[in-house]
Amino acid sequence: MKPLEGKIALVAGGTRGAGRGIAMELGAAGATVYITGRTTRNEVSEYRRPETIEETADLVNDLGGIGIPVQVDHLVPEQVKVLIEKIEREQGRLDILVNDIWGGENLIEWDTPVWKHSLEKGLRMLRLAVDTHLITSHYALPLLIKNEGGLVIEITDGTKEYNDNNYRVSMFYDLAKSSVNRMAKALSHELSPYNCTAVSLTPGWMRSEIMLEVFGVTEENWREGIKKDPHFAISETPRFIGRAVAAIAGDKIRHELNGQSFSSGELAMKYNFNDLDGTQPDCFRYLVEVLEAGKPANTEGYR
Predict the structure, then answer these.
(1) pTM value?
(2) What is the DSSP string of 42-82?
(3) Which domains does the chain have, with CATH numbers?
């Protein structure tokens, strides 16, 4: 079954990590997926990472969707404008917008107060997390609202509830990730008259390409990483949040979710989907009830 066949999606920031997993699952559900990012087979971004938007498009195609890579820097309004004009010219519509642009991992100074944190890195982080999403929505939403039932998903780190109750890494990071949740709330009001829906969504402890390297493992032997940190047992693949996005996109009554904030684990229970290993890791409940409560690592009842 291809529940999203005929739907047109834009995964803004789909080169790697959550964006790649989301693009793949939208493709597996039959969607045509435009995948944007800065790194291509011919040009590497400041990340100096090997993953490319063309690779993501190939993975989408392999799963039965249609992947279309487009190099875009979402901090450059003219590039985003040209992207949306291309989608309108080629498809005539946009049904799903996933704002997953980020790119700030190398800018984070952990547990560093604002007066000690690099101002240049902090402000760059905010631009990457906030300005990119605003610029993309500004140009993409006029196309999305032309048809009723459009969906916008803002990808962040942390649910609204979790971020409201916890200090997140540094003031800059805290603002960046909390702001994205608020964007979805604001968009839910602006899109409602057009019967369109906006939500924010966070993965749990996601085994992105970068995270696997940090732990010195691959997806095939990821459990070896538990030796380094036993709480790594609650981690999930990027495909898990992808399945969360596909589930919302396929929900005919998704407008009931408008303006809300979710984690991949929450939506797995709501829509009854699993990660690739057949489990449903519920990371944010685990963080509060196990890790932050100082209990020993034990995923029983959380996976």
Answers:
(1) 0.97
(2) S---TT--S--HHHHHHHHHHTTSEEEEEE--TT-HHHHHH
(3) 8-229+237-280 (3.40.50.720)
